[in-house]
Amino acid sequence: MLQVHNLEVVYDDVMLVLRGVSISVAPGQIVALLGANGAGKSTLLRALTGLLDVHHGKITRGSVDLDGQPVGHLRPAQLVTRGITQVMEGRRIFAELTVEENLRIGAHTNPRQFKERADRVLTLFPVLADRRRDTAGYLSGGEQQMLAMGRALMANPRYLLLDEPSLGLAPRLVDQVRDLIVAINETGTGVLLVEQNATMALSIASHGYVMETGKVVLDKPAKELLSDEDVREFYLGLAGTDMAGGTGRRSFREVKHYKRRKRWLS
Amino acid sequence: MIELFEAVFRGLGQGSVYALIALGFVIIYKSSHVISFAQPGFMIAGVVLVTYLVELPGIGFWVAVPLATLLTGLFALGIERAVIRPMVGRPIFAIAIITIALDILIRTVAHAYLGINVRHVQDPWGLRTMSLGPLTVQQRHLAAVLAAAALVAVLFLFFRYTRMGLAMRAVAQDQEAALAQGVSVGAVFAMSWAMAGGLAAVAGSFAASGRSVDPLFWLIALTALPVIILGGLDSLPGAVVAGLVIGVAQALTQSYPHWVSFLGTNASVIVPWLVMILVLVVRPYGLFGTREVERV
């Protein structure tokens, strides 16, 4: 169980970015984390993978627990060894290395099992097998996203954290990425899926969190989130549609209403 | 014609030394974006170590050089750990200045061990010559070329095939992404400094063959500066090629001073810097450096 309790993260000693966030991801579960830009989703992932340091961030309160043990203070390499791996936003593959070398870096913490893990990753992403010896920077956007996911899987994570895997991909590729996430999850890997594409994320997740300005404002099973009126309006763009799909026109007066209502819990 | 080729070969010998020192600069720069001015210090430290080691019974040049290389590498690693690591995340400029201080410090201590006596690395070549086809070349130059070639080959294999080498290349490209894969960036920094120190020690040992080690010896390492600028700060092949180019340019102007007589006597000393300036006018990022893409 990967858990975060009342986490507070401060950047540069002044910017309070997370204000008491609590979430949990059970083994083998897909959890969606939604939120607008700047809500603190990426910061939360950094706190989970030990990458706050790079950005001068610090955990000032609360804890990150893996199976009941605090892991918030560990270095990224130690967290990877314990089974938490992140696919960073924007893919961040090593463009000048070949596809295979990227995968080898992914297996950095456990080079002995490179071969069997590579076989598994290449069966999951056949497109990478075809382009094994190519320079990674020349792959298409979708292939790069697969490579980034494959590289993370090389560490054989128990919990895979995905930061906006659908970013900049065509709708068909988004579907493909979604199916791959499900396939990865079926092998027993817990997935924390940070997404702007709420429809996609909630369609496969069992539980969902909505974050806003450093807080979790909604914490519900994905099904309930999908039918939640606010989520439908602000994240799914289904304003004014009822569950049956009928549309009604909205006037500007109601847009004001949107602004007032969006202060969820205050 | 023979004379010309002999001068070129002399230049290649000298250039190999420059290339080895420059490789150290580039390896550190690539992994941590720090320009380490401590390379001359490591070279002197390595050479002084060799001169002392060869005086021990049973240790000749061939044992002393690898041993000194190892020790200098460890020393550089220690320096990185103690002085440079706490500065990670600080302005690169500040770290560069610290490396200048380190260089002065290491050199001063090493020079104290040089003293006023003439010290030798007791290399097996001296100034002996041999014939290479029609050419008569000094053995020490051939040795330097061969040593550099061997080390470059080892480095190539290291960066290509080993786990650590691959991690170093990954860190050079994207530090945070490498961290996220479980690469220890600290280990990569330490490794790059150790390699730079070791390379400087080898370079120094070959530069010192056929001559004595004196307090002006470190000026050889200073020539590695125009070399790395010429080759492009972040290019390993660039460091090798530029090292050889500058070595040859220097040797040619030594052998044919009338070519550059307008620069006065002893022009070969400034030739590396001249070549650097001329190339930079045409290619500001060096021969092989990554062109900086900047949006205006």
**What structural category characterises the helix and strand content of chain B?**
mainly alpha
- The helix/strand class of chain A is alpha/beta
**Terminal residue distance of chain B:** 51 Å
Order of strands in the sheet with most strands of chain A: 6-7-8-3-9-10
Order of secondary-structure elements of chain B: HHHHEEHHHHHHHH
The greatest interface here is: A-B, 30 and 18 residues
**How much helical structure, as a percent, in the residues of chain A?**
25-40%
CATH hierarchy, class of chain B:
Mainly Alpha
Helix segment tally of chain B: 12
Number of strands of chain B: 2
SSE pattern of chain A: EEEHEEHEHHHHEHEHEEHHH
CA radius of gyration of chain B is: 19 Å
Strand order of the largest sheet of chain B: 1-2
CATH architecture of chain B: Orthogonal Bundle
User: The CATH topology of chain B is what?
Assistant: ABC transporter involved in vitamin B12 uptake, BtuC
Number of strands of chain A: 10
What's the helix and strand layout?
The complex is a heterodimer of chains A (266) and B (296).
Chain A: E1 2-11, E2 15-25, E3 30-35, H1 41-49, E4 57-66, E5 69-70, H2 76-81, E6 84-87, H3 99-106, H4 114-124, H5 126-130, H6 141-153, E7 159-163, H7 171-186, E8 190-195, H8 198-204, E9 207-212, E10 215-221, H9 222-227, H10 229-234, H11 252-261
Parallel strand pairs in A: 3-8, 3-9, 6-7, 7-8
Antiparallel strand pairs in A: 1-2, 1-4, 4-5, 9-10
Helix pairs in contact in A: 3-6
Chain B: H1 2-32, H2 39-53, H3 61-84, H4 92-114, E1 129-132, E2 135-138, H5 139-161, H6 163-173, H7 175-180, H8 185-207, H9 219-222, H10 224-231, H11 236-255, H12 271-282
Antiparallel strand pairs in B: 1-2
